[in-house]
Amino acid sequence: MIETQNLITSFGLLKAVDNVSLSVAKGTITGLIGPNGAGKSTLFNTLTGVIRPTSGEIHFDGIRTTKSPPDVLFRQGLAHTFQIPRPFPQMTVLENLMLAPTGQVGESLFAPFFMMKKVKRQEREIQAKAMDILTFTTLDTMANDPAGKLSGGQMKLLELARVLMVDPKVILLDEPAAGVSPALTEILVEKIKDLNARGHTFFIIEHDMDFIMRHCEPVIAMVSGHVVFEGSGEAARSDPQLVNAYLGDMTYE
Amino acid sequence: MIGIVSYLVFFLTMGFVLSIAVLGLNLQWGYTGLFNGGVAAFFGAGAYGVILFGGSNKAGQLIGFGLPYPFAVAGAVLLAGLLAWIVGLITTHLRHDYLAIATFGVAIAVENFARNAEPITGGAKGLRGFERPFETVINDPFWFNLAYLIFVFVVLIIVYNILENIGQSPFGRLLRAIREDEVAAQSLGKSPARVRLQAFIFGSMIMGLSGALYATFYAFISPQDIVPILTFQIWSMLIVGGSGNNKGAVFGTLIVWAGWVGSGWVLTQFAPVEMQLYIGTIQFIMIGLIIVLTLLIRPKGLLPEKLIISRSVARVKPE
Q: Kindly report the CA angle at B274 between B268 and B278, in degrees rounded to 5?
């Protein structure tokens, strides 16, 4: 679904992503591991169009997307969540979700006056879908609360719920389990697996090796901007060089 | 008695005219988070526009189309929109304080243009001699002013309803999302630059409408009417009332306007003679004080923004 060729993203002299060629296969839950500063988040930001690559190519779903901005990529089916959640804090949880669908007729200045009927019908559909997804992500009781009042873990669920409003082909999650209570992590994992079974591809950055080994297949490892390992979780775990040399600070327990 | 009533008519007319400008600012700042520091420019474009389009051609002046009043107002509003479109395109990458500085600069430029482009704007003397619609028909200043008050009130109601509709529509939701977090909105497939430009233009057109009604009321406009303090007066009205809330915008306007007029009256009556010269300055200080005090004591204004749920949607009851 996602392929990169010789992708480089530099900040001045620093090549945060250095000559990365990788591919994320359709239907997988691909894990991305690596120590702090390895370039994982920069890679994600490059793939999602937040940062323009310095050189190299990105293809998403067979289309060249090297220079596409985030909004275009989202409309093509590439969704992502943020390492630090970014809800719309002074909007209700329900409204956070209702914003997400693309192609809303009501999202123009004149629609409220000239296409009221159509807008209302679409709003009803969107609301029904939003309530389904809120139930699915266990946030339904908070539908009318301002999103800024949610806990950090609930905000991560909210971000997942938001992107689910559009049935994205690929969802990139940046550390979905970091700072989330074990109970919420369980819910999150369950939802990810459930969605994966329905055909959504996931690409996940995670520091928690246990999380990666148990739930992701295959695994990609990055160090200093390079991809140093691509393969099954089993192989990554039994690769002593990889574990000791690069990932010593987060050895699998 | 008639003196008090006619003063009340004047007070309310100006209050409603200013309310319209504050509603325009509320669309930009309250809904979308756009820091427009040049309200006076768009207000001024509308004020000059209505007289230029609707006034009669005079010797020594380039413009003065003598258009019927509705067309003159439409032209004034479009002129404000055109200015906003140009400014919006130039400042599309500016955020927050940088946008404020840039738009403030635009307002200074517009004021200086008005002051110096004598063939078009009449220069420092301004433009006078505008024939107001129905003035000859009603032919009595008191009844004319009363009729004009009703007209302005109707326009205010219409503008208010349009903005309430926008606020509760999916477009309003989009504006608030961009205000709250532009990056997150873009990650959800929205194009913030386009939407911000739309809100900026539409809000500025409403300010232009307000300016047009202002100039119509006085049948006169001069650079003195569009000095930078106007921008801050309008900001203080929105901040006091509660940005993000249209009712608050109107409420805040009337309160600050009453304070402005009231303080002017009190000062002229009771201030010592040697202070009389500085009444305007004292009022300027008050505007600054009102903004600072509101931000300190009640940062969300007298009527804070409410959580809005799209009108077309039934409110969900938690179980």
A: 60
